[in-house]
Write a structure and sequence with these properties.
This protein has about 180 residues and is an alpha/beta fold. The chain is built from four helices and seven strands, in the order αβββαβαβββα. It has a seven-stranded mixed β-sheet with strand order 1-7-6-3-4-5-2, covered by helices on one side. A hairpin with a 4-residue loop joins strand 6 and strand 7. The longest helix has 25 residues.
Length: about 180
Amino acid sequence: MQLSPRGKLLLLIGVFLVPVVAAYIAYFGWRPSAHGNYGELLRVMPLQQTAGARLDGGSLDFEALRGKWLIVRVGGGVCGPDCAQQLYLTRQVRTAQGKDQSRIERVWVLADGHAPDASLLQAHPGLIVWRPANPGFLAQFPETGDDGVYLVDPLGNLMLRFPAHPDPKRMMKDLKLLLKASQIG
C-alpha cells in the first residue's frame, strides 16, 4: 500500500503528536485509582516518656531503639489467641523483609503488670518485651478497643496503626514500601 504525500504528512504528525496528547491526558485528566496503605496513618508524633524496663528487669529507653523501624504490639501480658496471632504475624512480617529485616525491631509493650508466658516468649526470639516506667506512655497510642499493632519510624515517631486482625501480606507491602522509601533506619 502506497501512502500519498498528504497521508505521509499526517502519519508523521501523528507519530509526534499522539505521545504529547497522551502525556497531557495522563498528567491532567486521568487519575488512577487511589493508592492507599493498609495501616491507618496516624498524626505523626514523637513518642514521649520513653523510659522503661525490659521483662528481665534491665532498663531500656525507647530512644536506644532510634534508627530502627519498630513494629510495636501494645497489650497486656496475658496473651490470648489474638495476641499470639499478632506476635506471630509481626515475626513473619519482619522475616519476610529479607535483607532489610535488620532495620526492624519487634517490641511488645506491656500495658499491665502481668508477665507473659515463658513458652510464648521462647517461640519469639528477638522480641523485646518492655514495660514503660510512666503509664502516660500508653496514652500516646490511640484507643482501639483491642490490643493493637503499631509502626514507629526510625526517628521515634508513632505513625501507623494496623487493624486488630491484620492481613500479613498487606502489612508486608506497607513495610516494604516504607523501607524502600526511607533513607534512615
